[in-house]
Amino acid sequence: MYITCLDLEGVLVPEIWIAFAEETGIEELKKTTRDEPDYDKLMNYRIGILKEHGLGLKEIQDTIAKIDPLPGAKEFLDKLRELGQVIIISDTFTQFAKPLMRKLSWPTIMCNELIVADNGEITGFQMRCDKSKLTTVRALQSIGYETIASGDSHNDLAMIQASKAGFLFRSTEQIKADYPELPAYEEYDELYAAIKNAMQ
Length: 200
Hints:
- The protein contains nine helices and seven strands; from the N terminus they run E-H-H-H-H-E-H-E-E-H-E-H-E-H-E-H.
- By secondary structure, the chain is of the alpha/beta class.
- Strand 3 (about 110-115) and strand 4 (about 120-125) form a beta hairpin.
């Protein structure tokens, strides 16, 4: 029994923080897990910048409302769900993900929670579990699933490497160079074919 585990941002939807950085003109918010492997460090950095500029959850959600899935992403996900179960495992937050899940026809997503003050200020975040992507894949394996995983960033590598088959998708040249043993794809048709082949 196979279950496919996909990253969200950069794989199915654009990077939320990059979209918000472009909307606000705050260049520092363009830093993502492609640039900073330590997620706690990255999020605390982002929260500090938001506080400095007086921005909160509402402003980010207003940007998210304008974001659509990447071209072809919904069709890819629909086809993949015909092959078997698919779970999106993301380091994003439920407060960000919901409108995007609606546009993708409500796939299952496992992500984290923001801590938000009454005035809308983001004061912190709560991770679902330690090393959430790897921990989730290991948990699925412990209940009888073979996992196939794909993502684009540093924080996806552990779940990709721990799975029966794992693929980079639209990753950086640096990550591809550092992990030449991981097949890397740029198009949904290629990734779909690789996942289907891994199930045989």
